[in-house]
Hints:
Blueprint: H1 11-18, E1 24-26, E2 29-31, H2 35-49, E3 54-55, H3 57-65, H4 72-87, E4 92-97, E5 100-105, E6 110-116, E7 130-133
Parallel strand pairs: 3-6, 4-7
Antiparallel strand pairs: 1-2, 4-5, 5-6
Amino acid sequence: MNKINNSFASIEQVTDQYFSQNKVKRDGIAADVSFEDVLRQKQSRQVMENSSLKFSKHASMRLLDRKINLTETQNARLENGVRQADEKGIQESLVLIDSLAFIVNVPNRTVVTAMDQTETNGNIFTNIDGAVIM
């Protein structure tokens, strides 16, 4: 860019500076992002925002990384499972819904992590004191 009159020497300079192929910049980081990924992320956030449960940063990242999208029905079942765990005095609960597993800190009503059936590492869960199967 010509600093004297703030003009570009060519159209290529404009397109190179303002448009990039297959890249979206957010927070200064360039990444390949598809429309489907953005849509899923927005839908997951909307379901989580309407929930009385909180999702830890770790759990939110796991949902995105593992492409887990909770439906409103699944979210309601998760909340119901946490309520049932609370009624039984469970502190750290495993809540199983369909093929999804959630570790939840019940007193704080916070989902600590989430995984699907392929990520359960031999079906062994530690540091829990109860499980709810929905």
